[in-house]
């Protein structure tokens, strides 16, 4: 019997605590009705929600829990879900508005910059090719001018040389014709004097003299060259002075 006494005392104490709690709740219900209790619960949850809201940076989880408890209590689970849905929709619309007002102009500006870059790059490429083309043409033109200057100089020199050669040739021809006229004029005088003054020479010898001198200009050049060649060959046979040939 002594062993069961502590258990009975413990059970009795629990029963008394339950009765006291029930009496307190009943007294509270008698003091404040259901509407009053609901208002007090709402106020308590709102206070917890506001307290958690002010401490959002340090306790975001507590803020969300208090927020959910508050709106679930006053609006129900369906009302809270609708509230969350509307809140998310509003945030989505806000993000979309920000995209339309900020991001889209940036995208358009980037597209315009990209188009400008492509245009500038195409223009740069075209100008670079055009510069290379003009530089090539300028270098080719310079080379042609240099070649033309050299050719013109050679042509001018050759023309000058040809001019002087032709001038000397014309002078020689004139001198040759003049000499030939003088020679045949003297031949006429010689023929007249030969027939008029000298009667000791026969007519045949006189004719041979006249024929010889008449054709002398045609073979005198060959005879002169032949004589010069003989003289040159003869001088080659003579002892030469080494110092004069250095």
UniProtKB/TrEMBL annotation:
Keyword Membrane: yes
The protein's name: Uncharacterized protein
Transmembrane domains' residue ranges: 175-195, 207-232
Organism encoding this protein: viral metagenome
Keywords noted in UniProt: Membrane, Transmembrane, Transmembrane helix
